[in-house]
Amino acid sequence: MPWNNQSGGGRRGGGGGGPWGQGPSGGPHQQPDLEELLKRSQDRLKQVIPGGGGPPGLLIFFLMLAGAVVAAWFAFFFVVGADENAVVLRFGKFDRQVDSGLHFRLPPPIEEVRVAPVRTEHVTNIGFESTVAGRGVGRDLPSESLMLSGDENIVVVGFTVRWRIRNAKEYLFNIQNPKDTVKEVAESVMREVVGESDLTPLITEARGKTEVAVKRLLQDVLDYYGAGIDIQAVSIQKSEPPALVIDAFRDVQAAQADKEKYQNEASGYASKVVNEAKGDADRILLTAKGYREQAIAEATGQTARFLKVYEEYKKAPEVTRKRLYLETMERVLGGADKIILDGKAGQGVVPYLPLDQLQKRKEGGN
Amino acid sequence: MGKILAAVLVVLVGLAAVAAYLSTFIVHVNEQAVVLTFSNPERVINEPNGTDGPGLYFKVPLAQTVEFFDKRILDYDLPTLEVTGQDQKRLMIDTFARYRITNPKLYYQAVRNERGLRDRLKPMMEAAVRGVLGSAKFQEIVKEKREVLMKDIAKQVNEESKALGLEVVDVRIKRADLPEQNQKNVYDRMRADRQKQAAETRAEGTALANKIKADADRQVTIIKADAMRDGERIRGEGDAERNRIFAEAFGKDPDFFAFYRSMQAYEVGMKSSDKSVETRMLLSPDSEFFKYFNNPTGAPPGPAKK
Q1: B213·A295 Cβ contact <8 A
Q2: Angle at alpha carbon of residue A180, lines to B95 and B169, rounded to 5°
Q3: In chain B, what residues touch A262 (CB-CB under 8 Å)?
Q4: Contact yes or no for B52/B102 (Cβ under 8 A)
Q5: Which of A88, A174, B43, B209 could form a disulfide with B35 if both were Cys (CB 3.0 to 4.6 A apart)?
Q6: Does the pTM exceed 0.80?
Q7: Fold of A122-241
């Protein structure tokens, strides 16, 4: 069909068959089939009519009729999926937007249908490959995940953007590659935000703040493009130091644990020695109290004895005194070695007791 | 006869369809079209701020052709550039642009198609990125002024790209990373920083532990000193009480107490501490103890007393 080239030269991303072509993207799924059907039926028409007549011709006519009914069905109706909205263009101009369900339309090229999955939540992963199950953090993509923080450190960030189509018309007709745009802008915005922050908050407490900032900026840029996209959430899946230096970061945590350990050990020591000291103090006090009680008891005992003796003494002072004296002397002198000297007996010293013996004993004692 | 008529009819209808097809075209909302009359761009349909919107249009078959251009915001990704900043630090810069065709006629004349555009846009973008970022400092690119710099690049590209019939909507720096060989330095520094931090943390721990221990030792000293003080006071109380008891009891008759206590003292004091050696005494027979020593009569002696 030579005329196909006549007007199709400048078109990009056309949807394939049919002289009227299709828009660059988002074309309805069922149109190629329809074109095929129409063409086929036309071909048949050309074959049948000149040949004409007879029962075989009649059979072919009914078959054609059935084909026409089917073709009409496809030509005049279309189905919009449960998660989709569709925009109907009449001669390329926006005509109406319809929700999911069965809808009427005029056959192309008069009306064309473009479909946008408005109720699907789209997920864009940046910095890592999504796993098959779509859950968890898959393999790291260093070219996307390595970022430079504001204090010239390198940080590995993987995050997920969840978004929806807010406006099917804008989404379909304002922007060439909405999905790539979300990804590229998100990456750019994340790097911008990471570049404004220091490393330590990024990998610790500032994740939430980063997410909020990225979401806001990303939404701003997409709105500026008129992309018709609503960012639902930006969630950081991982934000950590690069694998090459992670051991040093772990050591910082270990050091923190060590610090606590040292303190705990010291506290243990402290409570041990203080308790011991308290025990010692109690013992010292008890000993002192014991001493006090003992002193008092002794004094009480001695005075009690004295008072008893004194009571007796008062009854006969002279006799008692003498008796006590003699008894004491008896005990004192009884056990002692005695030398009795009479100063008045003649001149010199006259020993009553044998001095020689005393002398000897002295020598022996030496 | 009827058959021939039908055949003619079919042929006529077919011809009419072909004619309609050749003389009409549809411009969609997301497209702009330039109508060329013998390759000369004459009419523009659905351009921004233009009078003709999307819809069904007619053309003269064979004489006129139509070129379609996208009306949407389009992508342009610039390959990674190595840029040296004002402070001689190098950065790998990956940028992308978003643009739209604002003047399809000009665009068609200047670049014809997207490939032509890419050939023209690349040097423009590169020059703008190098120009703007080359006069910025590393910290400004990474941290402080990224937003402003991106706007500057877009502005600069826009000035030139107007001639191509397009408007750069936005230029964004996707990545601003260090070259491979500089990354190692960063890793080394990061590691050194963390090692320092770890050492400091441990030193802090040790210092705190020492402080706790020293404080405990101080408490121990104080507790013991307090206990000693209280203990001495209690002992003192005991001594005082003892003295009081003694004084009270002995104060009743100091003379007798002196005598009585002396007796006790003699008895204890005269005893030898060493049992093997007996205490030796030189005694005068005149003492009270010997009062009756030379007096067998038992009469009370006259003068000898004490």
Answers
A1: no
A2: 50
A3: 202, 205-206, 208-209
A4: no
A5: B43
A6: no
A7: Tetrahydropterin Synthase; Chain A (3.30.479)
